[in-house]
Amino acid sequence: MEVVERDEVLGGAVSTVERWPGVRVDRGSSAHVIVRHSGVVEELELAAHGLRYLDCDPWGFAPAPVPGDPGPDGRPLVFSVDLDATCASIAAACGEDDAAAYRRFVGVWGPRSRAVVDSFGRRPTPLGLARAFWPLGAPTADAPRTPGGDLAVDFLGSGDALLDRWFTSERLKAALAWFGAQSGPPMSEPGTAAMVAWAALLHDTPPGHPVGGSGGLARALRARLESDGGHVVLGDGAARLLVEDGRVCGVETASGRRVHAPVVVAACHVLATRDLAGDDAPPALADAAPPVGNGFGLVLRCLTDALPTYPGVDPAVSGQGLQLLCTDRAQLAAAHGDWLGGRLPREPVPLAMSFSASDDTLAPPGKHVVTVWGQWYPYALADGGDWDALAEAEAQRLVAAVDRYAPGFADSVQRMYVQTPLLLERELSLLRGNVMHVEMGLASMFSLRPTPALAGYRVPGLDGLYLAGASTHPGGGVSGNSGRTAARAVLADRRPLARARAAAGRAVRAARPR
Protein backbone atom coordinates (compact mmCIF):
# COMPACT_ATOMS: atom_id res chain seq x y z
CA MET A 1 0.00 0.00 0.00
CA GLU A 2 1.32 3.42 -0.93
CA VAL A 3 0.07 6.87 0.08
CA VAL A 4 1.06 9.72 -2.25
CA GLU A 5 0.80 13.29 -1.02
CA ARG A 6 1.55 16.49 -2.92
CA ASP A 7 2.50 18.40 0.23
CA GLU A 8 5.97 18.18 1.76
CA VAL A 9 4.32 18.11 5.19
CA LEU A 10 2.57 14.96 6.39
CA GLY A 11 -1.10 15.18 7.28
CA GLY A 12 -2.57 18.09 5.32
CA ALA A 13 -4.97 19.90 7.64
CA VAL A 14 -3.96 17.59 10.49
CA SER A 15 -0.33 18.67 10.62
CA THR A 16 2.09 20.69 12.70
CA VAL A 17 5.18 22.64 11.60
CA GLU A 18 7.95 24.61 13.25
CA ARG A 19 6.52 27.99 12.32
CA TRP A 20 9.20 29.95 14.21
CA PRO A 21 12.43 28.65 15.77
CA GLY A 22 11.50 26.26 18.57
CA VAL A 23 7.75 26.90 18.14
CA ARG A 24 5.46 24.17 16.84
CA VAL A 25 2.21 25.41 15.32
CA ASP A 26 -0.75 23.51 13.88
CA ARG A 27 -1.60 24.24 10.26
CA GLY A 28 -5.23 23.13 10.42
CA SER A 29 -7.11 21.39 13.19
CA SER A 30 -6.05 21.77 16.81
CA ALA A 31 -8.74 20.40 19.11
CA HIS A 32 -9.75 16.87 18.09
CA VAL A 33 -13.35 16.16 19.00
CA ILE A 34 -15.06 13.52 16.85
CA VAL A 35 -12.12 11.11 16.51
CA ARG A 36 -12.09 10.65 20.27
CA HIS A 37 -15.60 9.18 20.01
CA SER A 38 -15.30 7.28 16.71
CA GLY A 39 -13.19 4.39 18.03
CA VAL A 40 -10.65 4.72 15.20
CA VAL A 41 -7.76 5.52 17.54
CA GLU A 42 -8.42 2.38 19.58
CA GLU A 43 -9.10 0.11 16.60
CA LEU A 44 -5.79 1.03 14.98
CA GLU A 45 -3.94 0.93 18.33
CA LEU A 46 -2.45 4.34 17.60
CA ALA A 47 -1.28 4.80 21.18
CA ALA A 48 1.21 2.01 20.51
CA HIS A 49 2.44 4.03 17.52
CA GLY A 50 3.20 7.22 19.40
CA LEU A 51 -0.13 9.02 19.73
CA ARG A 52 -0.84 10.53 23.13
CA TYR A 53 -3.74 12.89 23.73
CA LEU A 54 -3.92 15.60 26.34
CA ASP A 55 -7.49 16.05 27.53
CA CYS A 56 -9.02 19.50 27.24
CA ASP A 57 -10.63 19.76 30.65
CA PRO A 58 -12.33 22.17 31.13
CA TRP A 59 -13.34 21.72 27.50
CA GLY A 60 -15.16 25.02 27.13
CA PHE A 61 -15.07 28.49 28.60
CA ALA A 62 -17.36 31.45 27.97
CA PRO A 63 -16.45 34.79 29.57
CA ALA A 64 -18.68 37.09 31.54
CA PRO A 65 -20.08 40.02 29.53
CA VAL A 66 -17.66 42.88 29.11
CA PRO A 67 -18.39 45.72 31.56
CA GLY A 68 -20.39 48.38 29.79
CA ASP A 69 -22.18 45.94 27.49
CA PRO A 70 -25.96 45.80 27.73
CA GLY A 71 -27.06 43.37 30.42
CA PRO A 72 -25.64 42.60 33.84
CA ASP A 73 -22.07 41.58 34.51
CA GLY A 74 -21.62 38.07 35.87
CA ARG A 75 -19.39 35.08 36.27
CA PRO A 76 -17.85 33.09 33.44
CA LEU A 77 -19.23 29.76 32.28
CA VAL A 78 -16.89 26.80 32.61
CA PHE A 79 -17.77 23.51 30.91
CA SER A 80 -15.91 20.57 32.44
CA VAL A 81 -16.02 16.83 31.94
CA ASP A 82 -17.42 16.78 35.47
CA LEU A 83 -21.13 17.41 34.95
CA ASP A 84 -21.63 18.49 38.57
CA ALA A 85 -18.91 21.13 38.25
CA THR A 86 -20.40 22.35 34.97
CA CYS A 87 -23.87 22.66 36.47
CA ALA A 88 -22.42 24.54 39.45
CA SER A 89 -20.81 27.01 37.03
CA ILE A 90 -24.08 27.44 35.12
CA ALA A 91 -25.98 27.96 38.38
CA ALA A 92 -23.56 30.71 39.47
CA ALA A 93 -23.60 32.47 36.09
CA CYS A 94 -27.13 31.84 34.81
CA GLY A 95 -29.25 30.56 37.67
CA GLU A 96 -30.35 27.28 39.21
CA ASP A 97 -33.14 26.69 36.69
CA ASP A 98 -30.77 26.64 33.74
CA ALA A 99 -28.32 24.46 35.65
CA ALA A 100 -31.05 21.90 36.27
CA ALA A 101 -32.17 22.15 32.65
CA TYR A 102 -28.62 21.53 31.46
CA ARG A 103 -28.38 18.38 33.57
CA ARG A 104 -31.61 17.10 32.00
CA PHE A 105 -30.39 18.15 28.56
CA VAL A 106 -27.25 16.02 28.92
CA GLY A 107 -29.36 13.10 30.11
CA VAL A 108 -31.69 13.29 27.11
CA TRP A 109 -29.21 14.21 24.40
CA GLY A 110 -26.30 12.01 25.55
CA PRO A 111 -27.89 8.84 24.09
CA ARG A 112 -29.10 10.77 21.06
CA SER A 113 -25.63 12.10 20.35
CA ARG A 114 -24.18 8.61 20.75
CA ALA A 115 -26.63 7.54 18.04
CA VAL A 116 -25.20 10.31 15.85
CA VAL A 117 -21.70 8.94 16.55
CA ASP A 118 -22.95 5.51 15.47
CA SER A 119 -24.46 6.91 12.27
CA PHE A 120 -21.20 8.70 11.46
CA GLY A 121 -19.39 5.36 11.49
CA ARG A 122 -21.75 3.69 8.99
CA ARG A 123 -22.51 4.10 5.31
CA PRO A 124 -25.40 6.59 5.14
CA THR A 125 -27.94 4.10 3.84
CA PRO A 126 -31.55 4.08 5.06
CA LEU A 127 -30.91 0.77 6.84
CA GLY A 128 -27.73 2.05 8.46
CA LEU A 129 -29.44 5.20 9.69
CA ALA A 130 -32.37 3.18 10.99
CA ARG A 131 -30.02 0.93 12.95
CA ALA A 132 -28.38 3.97 14.51
CA PHE A 133 -31.50 5.95 15.42
CA TRP A 134 -34.35 3.45 15.81
CA PRO A 135 -33.43 2.44 19.40
CA LEU A 136 -33.87 6.04 20.56
CA GLY A 137 -37.63 5.73 20.59
CA ALA A 138 -37.70 2.62 22.76
CA PRO A 139 -39.35 2.93 26.19
CA THR A 140 -37.19 2.77 29.30
CA ALA A 141 -37.82 2.18 32.97
CA ASP A 142 -38.04 5.96 33.43
CA ALA A 143 -39.89 7.06 30.30
CA PRO A 144 -42.45 5.80 27.78
CA ARG A 145 -41.69 5.36 24.08
CA THR A 146 -40.68 8.62 22.41
CA PRO A 147 -42.90 9.23 19.37
CA GLY A 148 -41.02 9.29 16.10
CA GLY A 149 -42.50 12.68 15.28
CA ASP A 150 -41.02 14.18 18.43
CA LEU A 151 -37.58 12.81 17.55
CA ALA A 152 -37.89 14.14 14.01
CA VAL A 153 -38.79 17.62 15.27
CA ASP A 154 -35.77 17.62 17.56
CA PHE A 155 -33.26 16.28 15.01
CA LEU A 156 -34.52 18.23 12.01
CA GLY A 157 -35.04 21.45 13.92
CA SER A 158 -32.55 24.26 14.34
CA GLY A 159 -30.01 24.53 17.11
CA ASP A 160 -31.49 27.87 18.13
CA ALA A 161 -34.97 26.35 18.51
CA LEU A 162 -33.54 23.54 20.62
CA LEU A 163 -31.70 25.98 22.88
CA ASP A 164 -34.79 28.16 23.26
CA ARG A 165 -36.85 25.14 24.34
CA TRP A 166 -34.36 24.09 26.99
CA PHE A 167 -32.79 27.24 28.44
CA THR A 168 -33.58 30.84 29.39
CA SER A 169 -30.13 32.45 29.75
CA GLU A 170 -28.90 34.04 26.53
CA ARG A 171 -25.31 33.67 27.73
CA LEU A 172 -25.67 29.90 28.03
CA LYS A 173 -27.47 29.68 24.71
CA ALA A 174 -24.81 31.81 23.00
CA ALA A 175 -21.95 29.64 24.31
CA LEU A 176 -23.60 26.41 23.17
CA ALA A 177 -24.63 27.95 19.83
CA TRP A 178 -21.05 29.08 19.16
CA PHE A 179 -19.81 25.57 19.99
CA GLY A 180 -22.35 24.03 17.60
CA ALA A 181 -21.64 26.55 14.85
CA GLN A 182 -18.03 25.35 14.54
CA SER A 183 -19.34 22.86 11.98
CA GLY A 184 -20.26 25.74 9.68
CA PRO A 185 -23.99 26.48 9.44
CA PRO A 186 -25.54 29.03 11.77
CA MET A 187 -27.68 27.51 14.48
CA SER A 188 -30.75 29.09 12.89
CA GLU A 189 -30.64 26.53 10.05
CA PRO A 190 -32.77 23.36 10.07
CA GLY A 191 -30.93 20.21 11.09
CA THR A 192 -28.37 21.92 13.33
CA ALA A 193 -29.81 20.77 16.66
CA ALA A 194 -27.52 17.73 16.82
CA MET A 195 -24.48 19.98 16.33
CA VAL A 196 -25.33 21.82 19.54
CA ALA A 197 -26.19 18.61 21.35
CA TRP A 198 -22.77 17.08 20.67
CA ALA A 199 -21.74 18.97 23.82
CA ALA A 200 -23.52 16.28 25.86
CA LEU A 201 -20.84 13.75 24.83
CA LEU A 202 -17.99 15.91 26.09
CA HIS A 203 -18.94 15.05 29.66
CA ASP A 204 -17.76 11.52 28.83
CA THR A 205 -14.74 12.21 26.63
CA PRO A 206 -13.50 15.77 26.08
CA PRO A 207 -11.70 17.18 23.05
CA GLY A 208 -8.02 16.36 22.96
CA HIS A 209 -4.80 17.73 21.55
CA PRO A 210 -1.98 15.35 20.59
CA VAL A 211 1.31 15.91 22.38
CA GLY A 212 3.59 17.77 19.97
CA GLY A 213 0.70 19.21 17.98
CA SER A 214 -2.21 18.07 15.86
CA GLY A 215 0.18 16.35 13.46
CA GLY A 216 0.79 13.72 16.13
CA LEU A 217 -2.29 11.91 14.84
CA ALA A 218 -0.96 11.87 11.27
CA ARG A 219 2.44 10.67 12.45
CA ALA A 220 0.86 7.80 14.38
CA LEU A 221 -1.22 6.81 11.36
CA ARG A 222 1.94 6.75 9.24
CA ALA A 223 3.73 4.63 11.81
CA ARG A 224 0.81 2.18 11.84
CA LEU A 225 0.75 2.02 8.03
CA GLU A 226 4.48 1.37 7.85
CA SER A 227 4.26 -1.34 10.51
CA ASP A 228 1.77 -3.07 8.20
CA GLY A 229 4.15 -2.84 5.23
CA GLY A 230 2.87 0.32 3.59
CA HIS A 231 4.74 3.54 2.91
CA VAL A 232 4.16 7.25 2.34
CA VAL A 233 5.63 9.45 -0.39
CA LEU A 234 5.56 13.20 0.22
CA GLY A 235 6.05 15.97 -2.33
CA ASP A 236 4.88 13.89 -5.31
CA GLY A 237 1.11 13.80 -5.36
CA ALA A 238 -1.25 12.20 -7.84
CA ALA A 239 -1.52 14.10 -11.13
CA ARG A 240 -4.00 11.82 -12.89
CA LEU A 241 -5.77 8.52 -12.51
CA LEU A 242 -4.71 5.59 -14.68
CA VAL A 243 -7.78 3.99 -16.23
CA GLU A 244 -8.12 0.89 -18.42
CA ASP A 245 -11.41 -0.56 -19.71
CA GLY A 246 -13.48 1.55 -17.33
CA ARG A 247 -11.49 0.57 -14.26
CA VAL A 248 -8.92 2.51 -12.27
CA CYS A 249 -5.55 0.76 -12.24
CA GLY A 250 -3.38 3.27 -10.39
CA VAL A 251 -2.15 6.85 -10.52
CA GLU A 252 0.50 8.86 -12.27
CA THR A 253 2.25 11.29 -9.94
CA ALA A 254 3.44 14.82 -10.62
CA SER A 255 6.95 13.53 -11.29
CA GLY A 256 5.65 11.11 -13.93
CA ARG A 257 6.01 8.03 -11.75
CA ARG A 258 3.31 5.42 -12.31
CA VAL A 259 1.93 3.59 -9.31
CA HIS A 260 -0.14 0.58 -10.34
CA ALA A 261 -2.83 -0.65 -7.97
CA PRO A 262 -6.19 -2.41 -8.25
CA VAL A 263 -7.77 0.13 -5.90
CA VAL A 264 -7.36 3.89 -5.47
CA VAL A 265 -8.85 5.67 -2.46
CA ALA A 266 -8.99 9.43 -3.05
CA ALA A 267 -9.11 11.33 0.24
CA CYS A 268 -8.73 14.73 -1.40
CA HIS A 269 -11.54 17.14 -2.28
CA VAL A 270 -14.15 15.44 -4.46
CA LEU A 271 -13.66 18.13 -7.13
CA ALA A 272 -9.92 17.45 -7.10
CA THR A 273 -10.75 13.77 -7.68
CA ARG A 274 -12.93 14.81 -10.61
CA ASP A 275 -9.96 16.67 -12.09
CA LEU A 276 -7.68 13.66 -11.60
CA ALA A 277 -10.12 11.50 -13.57
CA GLY A 278 -10.29 14.02 -16.41
CA ASP A 279 -12.01 12.64 -19.50
CA ASP A 280 -12.38 9.26 -17.78
CA ALA A 281 -14.71 10.71 -15.17
CA PRO A 282 -18.14 9.01 -15.44
CA PRO A 283 -21.26 11.20 -15.27
CA ALA A 284 -21.67 10.74 -11.51
CA LEU A 285 -18.25 12.33 -11.00
CA ALA A 286 -18.02 14.60 -14.05
CA ASP A 287 -21.33 16.28 -13.20
CA ALA A 288 -20.71 16.55 -9.45
CA ALA A 289 -21.40 20.07 -8.22
CA PRO A 290 -21.62 19.94 -4.42
CA PRO A 291 -22.13 23.20 -2.51
CA VAL A 292 -18.63 24.44 -1.69
CA GLY A 293 -19.69 27.82 -0.39
CA ASN A 294 -17.88 31.13 -0.13
CA GLY A 295 -15.13 30.50 2.39
CA PHE A 296 -15.42 29.52 6.00
CA GLY A 297 -13.10 31.31 8.38
CA LEU A 298 -9.84 33.07 9.14
CA VAL A 299 -7.18 31.69 11.50
CA LEU A 300 -4.50 33.45 13.49
CA ARG A 301 -1.55 31.48 14.83
CA CYS A 302 -0.04 33.69 17.52
CA LEU A 303 3.21 33.43 19.45
CA THR A 304 2.63 35.19 22.75
CA ASP A 305 4.44 35.76 26.03
CA ALA A 306 1.30 34.97 28.06
CA LEU A 307 -1.99 33.12 27.86
CA PRO A 308 -5.16 35.16 27.40
CA THR A 309 -6.21 36.37 30.85
CA TYR A 310 -9.89 36.90 31.54
CA PRO A 311 -10.82 39.04 34.55
CA GLY A 312 -11.21 36.96 37.67
CA VAL A 313 -10.40 33.67 35.94
CA ASP A 314 -7.33 31.48 36.43
CA PRO A 315 -5.66 31.04 32.99
CA ALA A 316 -5.21 27.38 33.90
CA VAL A 317 -9.01 27.12 33.64
CA SER A 318 -9.71 29.26 30.58
CA GLY A 319 -6.64 28.06 28.67
CA GLN A 320 -7.47 24.35 28.59
CA GLY A 321 -10.18 24.11 25.96
CA LEU A 322 -12.32 26.15 23.61
CA GLN A 323 -12.59 29.80 24.63
CA LEU A 324 -16.06 30.60 23.27
CA LEU A 325 -15.92 34.38 23.12
CA CYS A 326 -19.56 35.13 22.48
CA THR A 327 -22.24 36.21 24.93
CA ASP A 328 -25.20 36.86 22.62
CA ARG A 329 -26.41 34.92 19.58
CA ALA A 330 -27.10 38.22 17.84
CA GLN A 331 -23.32 38.49 17.35
CA LEU A 332 -23.33 35.18 15.49
CA ALA A 333 -26.33 36.14 13.38
CA ALA A 334 -24.71 39.43 12.37
CA ALA A 335 -21.42 37.78 11.42
CA HIS A 336 -23.20 35.15 9.34
CA GLY A 337 -25.33 37.82 7.66
CA ASP A 338 -22.21 39.71 6.66
CA TRP A 339 -20.74 36.49 5.26
CA LEU A 340 -23.86 35.85 3.19
CA GLY A 341 -23.48 39.33 1.73
CA GLY A 342 -19.80 38.74 0.90
CA ARG A 343 -18.68 41.27 3.52
CA LEU A 344 -16.11 41.11 6.27
CA PRO A 345 -17.77 40.77 9.68
CA ARG A 346 -18.47 44.15 11.20
CA GLU A 347 -17.99 42.55 14.62
CA PRO A 348 -15.63 39.56 14.48
CA VAL A 349 -16.59 36.66 16.76
CA PRO A 350 -13.49 34.81 17.99
CA LEU A 351 -12.79 31.39 19.41
CA ALA A 352 -9.40 31.01 21.08
CA MET A 353 -7.39 27.91 21.94
CA SER A 354 -4.03 27.30 23.54
CA PHE A 355 -2.39 24.01 24.47
CA SER A 356 1.13 25.17 25.28
CA ALA A 357 0.40 25.44 29.01
CA SER A 358 -0.09 21.67 29.20
CA ASP A 359 2.29 20.68 26.38
CA ASP A 360 5.77 22.11 26.80
CA THR A 361 6.89 20.69 23.43
CA LEU A 362 5.06 23.47 21.58
CA ALA A 363 6.92 26.59 22.69
CA PRO A 364 9.99 27.62 24.74
CA PRO A 365 9.54 28.47 28.44
CA GLY A 366 7.66 31.73 28.93
CA LYS A 367 6.10 31.55 25.45
CA HIS A 368 2.72 30.29 24.27
CA VAL A 369 0.99 29.39 21.03
CA VAL A 370 -2.54 30.79 20.84
CA THR A 371 -4.85 29.99 17.94
CA VAL A 372 -7.66 32.44 17.26
CA TRP A 373 -10.42 31.32 14.92
CA GLY A 374 -12.83 33.75 13.31
CA GLN A 375 -15.74 32.19 11.46
CA TRP A 376 -17.72 33.35 8.43
CA TYR A 377 -15.07 35.19 6.48
CA PRO A 378 -15.88 35.15 2.74
CA TYR A 379 -13.39 33.79 0.25
CA ALA A 380 -14.67 36.11 -2.48
CA LEU A 381 -15.53 39.58 -1.23
CA ALA A 382 -18.48 41.40 -2.77
CA ASP A 383 -16.42 44.57 -3.17
CA GLY A 384 -13.61 42.69 -4.91
CA GLY A 385 -11.24 43.09 -1.96
CA ASP A 386 -7.81 41.43 -2.11
CA TRP A 387 -7.16 39.06 0.80
CA ASP A 388 -3.40 39.45 0.53
CA ALA A 389 -3.82 43.18 1.13
CA LEU A 390 -6.46 42.75 3.85
CA ALA A 391 -4.85 39.99 5.91
CA GLU A 392 -2.90 42.07 8.42
CA ALA A 393 -5.72 44.52 9.18
CA GLU A 394 -8.27 41.74 9.64
CA ALA A 395 -5.87 39.87 11.89
CA GLN A 396 -5.53 42.93 14.10
CA ARG A 397 -9.31 43.28 14.30
CA LEU A 398 -9.63 39.67 15.42
CA VAL A 399 -6.89 40.15 18.03
CA ALA A 400 -8.76 43.21 19.28
CA ALA A 401 -11.94 41.12 19.57
CA VAL A 402 -10.10 38.73 21.92
CA ASP A 403 -8.52 41.63 23.80
CA ARG A 404 -11.98 42.99 24.52
CA TYR A 405 -12.64 39.96 26.74
CA ALA A 406 -9.03 39.34 27.80
CA PRO A 407 -7.44 42.78 28.28
CA GLY A 408 -3.72 42.71 27.55
CA PHE A 409 -3.89 39.91 24.99
CA ALA A 410 -2.99 42.23 22.10
CA ASP A 411 0.16 43.36 23.94
CA SER A 412 1.18 39.73 24.52
CA VAL A 413 1.25 38.88 20.80
CA GLN A 414 4.82 38.79 19.48
CA ARG A 415 4.45 37.01 16.14
CA MET A 416 1.45 36.16 13.97
CA TYR A 417 0.80 33.84 11.05
CA VAL A 418 -2.47 34.73 9.31
CA GLN A 419 -4.40 32.07 7.41
CA THR A 420 -6.98 33.88 5.30
CA PRO A 421 -9.52 31.85 3.28
CA LEU A 422 -7.27 32.36 0.28
CA LEU A 423 -4.17 31.13 2.12
CA LEU A 424 -6.08 28.09 3.42
CA GLU A 425 -6.75 27.21 -0.21
CA ARG A 426 -3.13 27.76 -1.23
CA GLU A 427 -1.52 26.04 1.73
CA LEU A 428 -3.87 23.14 2.42
CA SER A 429 -5.73 22.73 -0.91
CA LEU A 430 -8.99 23.63 0.79
CA LEU A 431 -11.05 24.77 -2.17
CA ARG A 432 -12.36 28.32 -1.64
CA GLY A 433 -11.02 28.12 1.91
CA ASN A 434 -13.77 25.75 3.06
CA VAL A 435 -12.23 23.61 5.79
CA MET A 436 -15.18 21.19 5.51
CA HIS A 437 -14.70 20.74 1.71
CA VAL A 438 -18.48 20.82 1.18
CA GLU A 439 -21.05 22.84 3.11
CA MET A 440 -22.35 21.04 6.21
CA GLY A 441 -26.00 22.04 5.76
CA LEU A 442 -28.80 19.49 5.95
CA ALA A 443 -29.03 19.30 2.13
CA SER A 444 -25.47 17.98 1.86
CA MET A 445 -25.25 15.56 4.75
CA PHE A 446 -25.66 11.80 5.14
CA SER A 447 -26.85 10.17 1.89
CA LEU A 448 -26.65 13.53 0.09
CA ARG A 449 -22.92 14.04 0.65
CA PRO A 450 -21.12 15.05 -1.52
CA THR A 451 -23.94 14.26 -3.97
CA PRO A 452 -26.60 11.53 -3.90
CA ALA A 453 -24.79 9.66 -6.70
CA LEU A 454 -21.47 9.59 -4.83
CA ALA A 455 -22.72 9.06 -1.29
CA GLY A 456 -21.72 5.38 -1.15
CA TYR A 457 -17.93 6.04 -1.22
CA ARG A 458 -17.80 4.32 -4.63
CA VAL A 459 -17.84 6.08 -8.00
CA PRO A 460 -20.51 4.54 -10.25
CA GLY A 461 -19.06 3.87 -13.68
CA LEU A 462 -15.42 3.81 -12.56
CA ASP A 463 -14.60 0.59 -10.75
CA GLY A 464 -11.69 0.59 -8.35
CA LEU A 465 -12.06 4.25 -7.34
CA TYR A 466 -13.29 5.07 -3.84
CA LEU A 467 -13.86 8.40 -2.12
CA ALA A 468 -12.94 9.40 1.42
CA GLY A 469 -12.15 12.60 3.30
CA ALA A 470 -14.23 15.59 4.36
CA SER A 471 -16.16 15.66 1.08
CA THR A 472 -17.87 12.42 2.07
CA HIS A 473 -20.11 11.34 4.96
CA PRO A 474 -19.95 12.37 7.77
CA GLY A 475 -18.16 15.53 6.61
CA GLY A 476 -15.42 17.74 7.97
CA GLY A 477 -13.70 17.58 11.32
CA VAL A 478 -11.07 15.13 12.54
CA SER A 479 -12.87 11.79 12.84
CA GLY A 480 -11.37 9.05 10.65
CA ASN A 481 -14.90 7.85 9.93
CA SER A 482 -14.93 8.33 6.18
CA GLY A 483 -11.59 6.58 5.67
CA ARG A 484 -12.67 3.61 7.76
CA THR A 485 -16.01 3.28 5.96
CA ALA A 486 -14.33 3.58 2.55
CA ALA A 487 -11.86 0.86 3.60
CA ARG A 488 -14.76 -1.39 4.57
CA ALA A 489 -16.31 -0.81 1.14
CA VAL A 490 -13.02 -1.77 -0.52
CA LEU A 491 -12.74 -4.97 1.52
CA ALA A 492 -16.35 -5.90 0.80
CA ASP A 493 -15.84 -5.43 -2.95
CA ARG A 494 -12.67 -7.51 -2.99
CA ARG A 495 -14.30 -10.61 -1.56
CA PRO A 496 -14.48 -13.36 -4.22
CA LEU A 497 -18.25 -13.21 -4.77
CA ALA A 498 -18.25 -9.44 -5.02
CA ARG A 499 -15.38 -9.55 -7.54
CA ALA A 500 -17.22 -12.10 -9.66
CA ARG A 501 -20.38 -9.98 -9.69
CA ALA A 502 -18.42 -6.87 -10.66
CA ALA A 503 -16.68 -8.74 -13.51
CA ALA A 504 -20.03 -10.01 -14.77
CA GLY A 505 -21.41 -6.50 -14.65
CA ARG A 506 -18.48 -5.16 -16.65
CA ALA A 507 -18.96 -7.92 -19.25
CA VAL A 508 -22.65 -7.07 -19.62
CA ARG A 509 -21.88 -3.38 -20.05
CA ALA A 510 -19.18 -4.13 -22.62
CA ALA A 511 -21.63 -6.30 -24.63
CA ARG A 512 -24.25 -3.59 -24.87
CA PRO A 513 -24.58 -1.82 -28.24
CA ARG A 514 -22.95 1.57 -28.22
TrEMBL record:
One Pfam family recorded for the sequence: Amino_oxidase
GO cellular component: cytosol
Protein name: Pyridine nucleotide-disulfide oxidoreductase domain-containing protein 2
Taxonomic path: Bacteria, Bacillati, Actinomycetota, Actinomycetes, Geodermatophilales
Residue ranges occupied by any Amine oxidase domain in the UniProt entry: 158-491
Function recorded in the entry: Probable oxidoreductase that may play a role as regulator of mitochondrial function.
UniProt GO MF annotations: oxidoreductase activity
Record text on subunit structure and interactions: Interacts with COX5B; this interaction may contribute to localize PYROXD2 to the inner face of the inner mitochondrial membrane.
